[in-house]
Amino acid sequence: MRIDGTAYRTIWPDGEGVVAIIDQTRLPHDFAIVRLTSLEETAHAIRAMLVRGAPLIGAAAAYGVALALRADASDRGLERACATLLATRPTAVNLRWALDRMRGRLAPLPESQRVEAAEAEAAAIADEDVEINRSIGLHGAALIRAAAERKAQGKSLGEPVNVLTHCNAGWLATVDWGTALAPVYAAFEQGIPLHVWVDETRPRNQGASLTAWELKHHGVPHTVIADNVGGHLMQHGKVDLCIVGTDRTTATGDVCNKIGTYLKALAAHDNGVPFYVGLPSPTIDWTIADGVREIPIEERDGREVSELTGRTADGRIETVRVTPDGSPVANYGFDVTPARLVTGLITERGVCPATRDGLLGLFPERG
Question: Where does the entry annotate site (Transition state stabilizer) (predicted)?
């Protein structure tokens, strides 16, 4: 995607033994590039959410393995790299998927060939992510176009399609294009009139900080709203469809995404608003069937809830506390939306029902 006319990915090789990333913890107020040179720096970038979003976490982990092998290409070095990176974030399945793929590619090779092969495999994972998301965008744009046609046939001629999203599942959460926002970008490029309701997404405010920043720079009409506004908008007919991302999806269609997604799905179900999930296939965990019972839910530092960071009127970036001193804080990072609340899964191979049969219809090799 483009920032002030310059095309960027979220992660890219930047010279021998260097991988560049966009530091997402400093957005939207400061666009900064960080250069990673080691396993430890990559693990920190994932854990501290300089990079975030399931697909990007996977790509970053792959590059992290390549950096680690420059220091130690032995079997022990490979296993240490994979174990260190796997421990950074427990919920997003792309992390495990990317590390398993890297291990499978590199373990059979002699040490002398591993660094070059690791760099090539990490680049392939990144390139494949871009194409997967581009395809998700095209399939999802057809849903937005259909919504526009329905509005044109009714009393809403000329009104934009209103899409509600939660958290950030745009290009900042992937290598490029995004998952939930890929259909928005594709539809926008096709000239379909649309508008995005952007949930602020507490805690961490990935919607207000990242999704809004992306859409603004790409010129997509949008409005930031508090997390609790979505149900009100749906009750008053101001949301035509919801599209969210996912960090892990079960073989039966349960969807694990940023905390608060489940509540949006309940509101959508109650108001007859279609609720779609942008789903790159590496985020499908074919080994589990019950998302509520089987997906580990990351619990993060309570300061993400008790503190807020922003820009002051005179331009300083400051962090302030918003809770009373001594009040306990719980900070669950994700929740699970049961498949029964999901209208459809938008994958790189097409749109399917959120069921085992629906997924197997697009991915029969998993049967």
Answer: 167
52 in a labelled binding site: yes
Name the catalytic one among 199, 247, 254, 335: 247
Residue 155 annotated as part of some ligand binding site: no
- pTM recorded for the entire structure: 0.92
Mean pLDDT calculated for residue range 37-61: 96
Residue 321 in marked binding region: no
Is 43 labelled a binding residue?
A: no
* Structural domain count, the chain: 2
Kindly give the pairing relationship between strand 33-36 and strand 317-321.
unpaired
Which among 260, 255, 256, 243 has a CA at the least distance from the CA of 202?
Answer: 260
207: which DSSP letter?
Answer: I
Q: What is the pLDDT of residues 291-335, one digit of tens each?
A: 999 999 999 999 999 999 999 999 898 999 999 999 999 999 999
Q: Are residues 115 and 192 in the same domain?
A: no
Q: Tokens standing for 108?
A: 């059979």
Strand 19-22 relative to strand 33-36, pairing? antiparallel
247 is catalytic: yes
pLDDT score for 259: 97
Rounded Cα distance between 240 and 227, Å, is 17
Average pLDDT over residues 189-206: 96
Do you find a cis peptide bond into 193, omega within 30 degrees of 0? no
Q: Is 228 annotated as a binding residue?
A: no
The residue to which tokens 């309570």 are assigned? 302
- Domain CATH number, residue 70: 1.20.120.420
Checking phi first, is residue 294 left (phi over 0); if not, alpha (psi -120 to 50) or beta? alpha
Closest to 285 (Cα-Cα) out of 325, 324, 245, 253: 253
Last residue of a domain, one of 126, 156, 175: 126
Q: What is the DSSP letter of 97?
A: H
Show the CA angle centred on residue 282, arms to residues 280 and 287, nearest 5°. 125
Residues 145 and 166 in one domain: yes
Domain housing 288: 131-366
- Predicted local confidence at residue 157, as pLDDT: 63
Listed in order, strand segments (DSSP E) in the chain are 2-3, 6-7, 11-13, 19-22, 33-36, 161-165, 194-199, 222-225, 241-244, 248-250, 255-258, 275-278, 284-285, 307-311, 317-321, 334-337, 344-347, 350-352
